[in-house]
Amino acid sequence: MKKIILSILFLLTISTLRVQAAVDTITIYSNSMHKPLKAVVITPYNYTQKNRSFPVVYLLHGYSGAFNNWIRKVPKLQQMVDENQLIIVCPDGAYSSWYIDSPLDSAYRYETHVAVEVPAYIDAHYKTIPDRKHRAITGLSMGGHGGLSLGLRHADFFGACGSMSGVADLHFLANKDDINKRIGDTAQYAANWEKYSVINMESA
Q1: Number of domains making up the chain
Q2: Is 14 domain-assigned?
Q3: What is the rounded CA–CA span in Å between residue 98 and residue 172?
Q4: Phi-psi bin for 34: left (phi > 0), alpha (psi -120 to 50), beta?
Q5: DSSP string spanning 112-174?
Q6: Residue 15 lies in a domain
Q7: How far apart are CA 137 and CA 4, in angstroms?
Q8: Quick one: which of 60, 75, 170, 182 has its CA closest to 115?
Q9: Which UniProt keywords apply (predicted)?
């Protein structure tokens, strides 16, 4: 009986110690905006194994969100990382950057930060597979637009892009969600509304 009890206790202990993906908050300095910005990085349970490298999915938050939105609201991301053997990176897109290098405000260069600076840092500091076939970018709402626009505008870098509830035509957001602050009004800056709407973009 003692052996049976010990065996059960051993199995219970092992189950409570189940290995799980690691969640880290890191700081990446943005040379384009001259300030540090945070990001969440989720790595699989076997990340430290020798001779292992992983594909990366860049996951963007929505309007009024922040870098830690995804892991707070969808903790199951850790399980997804383990099951699919990949790294997820959640960069900061500010409250309402729309992941654009704003032609009106040089303080907002979030296309450069998210599509260039963050991946460069991740490839330099993590065990990634550093080619476009093993990079993807997607997001929710504002991040959905960002996922498609950055994926298309940097198609030489990202091999796949996607969107969850992201608007494809920014005209639907005229005078909403700070988009006018980023690209101007629809009359004086009409060309910007065409340029930054996903429906008008082609793969770079």
Answers
A1: 1
A2: no
A3: 14
A4: left
A5: HIIIIIHHHHHHHHS-B--SGGGEEEEEBTHHHHHHHHHHHHTTTT-SEE--BS--S-GGGGT
A6: no
A7: 50
A8: 60
A9: Hydrolase
Q: Which two tokens stand for residue 75?
A: 């903790």
Structural domain of 152: 20-200
Q: pTM to 2 decimals?
A: 0.90
CATH value at residue 172: 3.40.50.1820
* Token duo for residue 86: 């990949």
Answer for the pair 63, 146: CB distance below 8 angstroms, yes or no.
Answer: no
**Other CB atoms within 10 A of residue 53 CB:** 13
DSSP state, 49? S
pLDDT tens-digit readout, 169-184: 999 999 899 999 999 9
Mean pLDDT of 187-202: 95
Q: Hey, what's the torsion of the CAs at 185, 188, 194, 197, to 10 degrees?
A: -20
